[in-house]
Amino acid sequence: MTTIRAVDLRVILDSRGRKTVEAEISVENGFGRAAAPGGASTGAHEAAVKDATAAVDDASSQVIPYLIGLDSTDQIGFDALLHEVDGTDNFAGIGANVSVALSMANAKAAAAALKIPLWRHLGGSFVSSAPLPLGNVIGGGAHATHATEIQEFLVIPTGCISIRDGIYANARGISCGKGDEGAWAPAVTDQDAFEVVTEAVSQVSDEFGFALSAGVDVAASQIYNPESELYEYRGGLVRTSEEQINYIAELIDEFGLVYVEDPLYEEDFGSFATLTEQMGSTCLICGDDLFVTNPSRLEKGIAEGSANCVLIKPNQIGTLTDTFEAISLAQKHGMETVMSHRSGETGDTTIAHLGCAFGCVFIKTGVVGGERTEKLNELIRIEESMI
User: Fold this and answer.
1) Would the pLDDT of 299 be above 60?
2) Can you state the angle between helices 52-62 and 96-114, rounded to 10 degrees?
3) Angle at the Cα of 190 (from 18 to 14), degrees rounded to 5?
4) pLDDT exceeds 70 at position 146
5) Sheet of 4-13, strand order
6) What DSSP assignment string belongs to 285-342?
7) Cβ distance 65 to 45 under 8 Å?
8) What mean pLDDT comes out for the span 113-131?
């Protein structure tokens, strides 16, 4: 038994200078530290986040005493207790920023006590590959409001043999103004951004000798107006749901996109399904705000055929056990999964291990910036340890 001896919480800063929660758990012969990220473009159904200072203060009496003495290797039991102590269905009681930091720190402590890496502890003996890096190279939307309307223009080294080489290829570029996730944020139109990314992908593919592909995160809920039921773009351009579907389908065809995230409003499961039926054979149609890593929303999407891919953000659902349940459900029904960072990040590298342990096809981490680079460097280390 790996008994939890001490639990500590503190308030730290994320990459945007905002307060977040860091947890430390000490066990017999082990220690784990983890921090909660925070999002700018957040789904309406994400687990509740509390003010970091208040959440840490409350947890000292309402959460921590219940964790002392638990067996750290029982991750399911640990996470179940967090739910029990919280007493709500979305961590509104203790805060998902507290719960996810504690859940990840506990897994790290258990892995340290067992003297195995976190990805091996969570994934077992048969994990043998790492996810491809999905890199945000041009950013706008909620991450950089002066730039593109589409929130993220992404690149994937689909032809790389090693993850390391794929990471190097994604990072190839020049420095300029950046958004929240470290992506370049020039004041250009979406069309200009597509043309720049297409040219860059071609040049870097030639330089590195393997194929790179393009994708986008539309973050369409940031554009959609529920009152008018229209997608309202800058300059007065509006699109109906049908027109938005056709627009996205045209982008997929024109620019050879292999990944499109949140192309439609987060409550419009039907329109998602229409787009997936039309384009899902050639492109991953991924739900982020649509699913928010929530198994119940994912079940609805599976029943309606709304997507063939789901974005995974542990802090959206609150614990590693809940995260694993969402991933297992998706994979059971033939959907791909993508492990993801948030716009407000720390140096915590846990998602690099989770992407490997849980068999994700991609890991979305950005391509530059200290807190993004930390995760990519950890992915390089993990790949080396698998050889």
Assistant:
1) yes
2) 60
3) 10
4) no
5) 4-13, 19-27, 30-35
6) EEESTTTTT-HHHHHHHHHHT--SEEEE-HHHHSSHHHHHHHHHHHHHTT-EEEEE--
7) no
8) 95
Residue type, 8: D
Q: In this predicted structure, what is the pLDDT of residue 367?
A: 83
Q: Which two tokens stand for residue 108?
A: 């790290």
Give the burial string for 61-74 (b: 16+ CB within 10 Å, else e).
ebbbeebeebebbe
Say whether 363 sits in a helix, a strand or coil. strand
How high is the mean pLDDT of the chain? 93
237-241, long-range: CB < 8 A, 24+ apart: 241/265, 241/268, 241/271
Nearest to 344 by CA among 317, 328, 366, 311: 366
The C-alpha atoms of residue 296 and residue 167 are separated, in whole angstroms, by: 34
Tokens of 5: 């001896």
Determine which of 79-88, 173-182, 274-283 has the lowest per-residue pLDDT on average.
173-182
Point out the residues that are catalytic. 181, 313
Q: What single letter denotes the amino acid at residue 85?
A: V
In one-letter notation, the amino acid at residue 267 is: E
Backbone angles phi, psi at 35, to 5 degrees: -130, 145
Continuous H helices in the chain: 52-62, 64-67, 75-86, 96-114, 118-123, 163-170, 190-208, 241-255, 269-279, 295-304, 314-317, 320-332, 350-357, 370-386
124 CB-side CA count, 13 A? 3
Q: Count the helix, strand and coil residues of the chain and give each as a percent rounded to the nearest 5.
A: 45, 20, 40
> Virtual CA dihedral for 34, 315, 349, 370, nearest 10 degrees?
-110
Beta-sheet pairing, 284-287 with 309-312: parallel
Percentage of the chain modeled with pLDDT above 70: 94
Sheet holding 238-239, edge to edge: 224-225, 230-232, 238-239
At 139 the pLDDT is 75
Q: Which residues make Cβ contacts (< 8 Å) with residue 14, sequence separation at least 6?
A: 20, 35, 37, 38, 344, 345, 346, 371
For the ranges 162-171, 242-251, 265-274, the lowest mean pLDDT is seen at 162-171
CA-closest candidate to residue 81, choices 96, 61, 97, 103: 103
